[in-house]
Amino acid sequence: MPDSILDDPEFVQRRRHFWTTVLSDPRFSAHTTAVAVRSGDLVGLAMSGPARDPDAGGARQLFVLYTFAAVHGTGAGAALLDAVVDPSQSAFLWVADPNPRAQAFYRKHGFRADGTVKTEDGVREIRMVRSPTD
């Protein structure tokens, strides 16, 4: 995410509004959200939902998966991913490029770049897809 977005004084309020909407508005009823908590503190979150890409073929889209650096390597990210995307479903996501740590995480969990690239808000992203497991 570009610094200009993170530095915006309204950023926290917009995020608060976004998550309040996601968690309470019936328009998001087909979305799945999960949080990771450690010692009573929120350390990660994830959200998936119906695909927005017209060529996704019914795949589930992972929209958000973030964890604090302090829990990297603990399994929190994997648990969040499994909580919001059933391994029996096809799925895809967009990830910043370059973002080698995130891309390696997704590859470890069966996602592969499909060659589709976009630039949004000045950030280059690649699409990664995963076929359902047997």
Report what the structure shows.
By secondary structure, this protein is α+β, with helices and mostly antiparallel strands. The chain has two domains: 29 residues; 100 residues, Aminopeptidase (3-Layer(aba) Sandwich). It has four helices and six strands. The chain is globular. 19% of the residues are buried.
Defining traits:
134 residues; alpha+beta; Aminopeptidase; 2 domains; six-stranded mixed beta sheet; 4 helices; 6 strands; 36% strand
CATH architecture level-2 label of the largest domain: 3-Layer(aba) Sandwich
Helix content: 25-40%
- In quaternary terms, these chains amount to single chain
The overall strand count is 6
Largest sheet: 6 strands, mixed
Q: Give the structural class.
A: alpha+beta
Radius of gyration, taken over Cα atoms and rounded to an integer in Å:
15 Å
Q: Characterize the overall form.
A: globular
Q: Whole-Å distance between the termini?
A: 35 Å
CATH superfamily grouping of the largest domain: Gcn5-related N-acetyltransferase (GNAT)
Record the strand order, biggest sheet: 1-2-3-4-6-5
Approximately what portion of the residues adopt beta-strand conformation?
35-45%
Mean pLDDT across all amino acids: 90
Give the SSE order as H and E letters.
Answer: HHEEEHEHEE
